[in-house]
Structure to design on (190 residues):
């Protein structure tokens, strides 16, 4: 799926859990650059992210949004973006992430452009999160926390069109990200 907004495009690489994001930004030489960046969270990283939050990531995000805690929302987006960013090895067998790679990305105008897009455009944020977080994250976390946990299948998610999303109030828009992360809502491309 490719979605253009503000000169950027997002695409899940076919048969790959890697999200490719084309970011348009102005570099420090004043040149406009279109560059592809890659984002991926392994199952282990996703479970770790889920387990690092009291009640899980989705519940934590819902609480932050409900509390209108802007500082925490910004910190979570930064953490998610930088945790997912990396570079694919040429042979495609590894997705390399380390402090140097993250620091190079974070200090670029590409990171700034992506960050601003995600915190100001709910559609872009939802698309990005959906691109790096699989729908079975809760099941994976349950496997780690205890063998006897019963995984309850969530009800079928509400499907919302992009037009419906644009009509939401500011308050409902703030809650939407957590609802998507929790699997309660799916945004259709129509």
């Amino acid at each position: 799926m490719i979605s253009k907004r503000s000169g950027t495009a997002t695409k899940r690489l076919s048969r790959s859990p890697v999200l490719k994001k084309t970011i348009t930004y102005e570099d420090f030489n004043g040149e406009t650059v279109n560059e592809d960046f890659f984002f991926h969270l392994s199952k282990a990283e996703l479970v770790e992210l889920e387990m690092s939050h009291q009640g899980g990531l989705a519940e934590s995000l819902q609480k932050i949004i409900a509390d209108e805690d802007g500082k925490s929302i910004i910190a979570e987006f930064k953490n998610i973006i930088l945790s997912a960013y990396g570079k694919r090895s040429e042979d495609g067998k590894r997705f390399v992430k380390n402090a140097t790679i993250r620091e190079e990305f974070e200090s670029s105008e590409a990171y700034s452009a992506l960050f601003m897009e995600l915190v100001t455009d709910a559609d872009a944020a939802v698309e990005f999160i959906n691109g790096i977080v699989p729908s079975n994250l809760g099941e994976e976390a349950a496997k780690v926390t205890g063998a006897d946990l019963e995984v309850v299948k969530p009800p079928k998610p509400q499907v919302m069109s992009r037009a419906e999303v644009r009509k939401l109030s500011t308050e409902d828009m703030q809650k939407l990200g957590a609802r998507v992360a929790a699997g309660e809502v799916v945004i259709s491309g129509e």
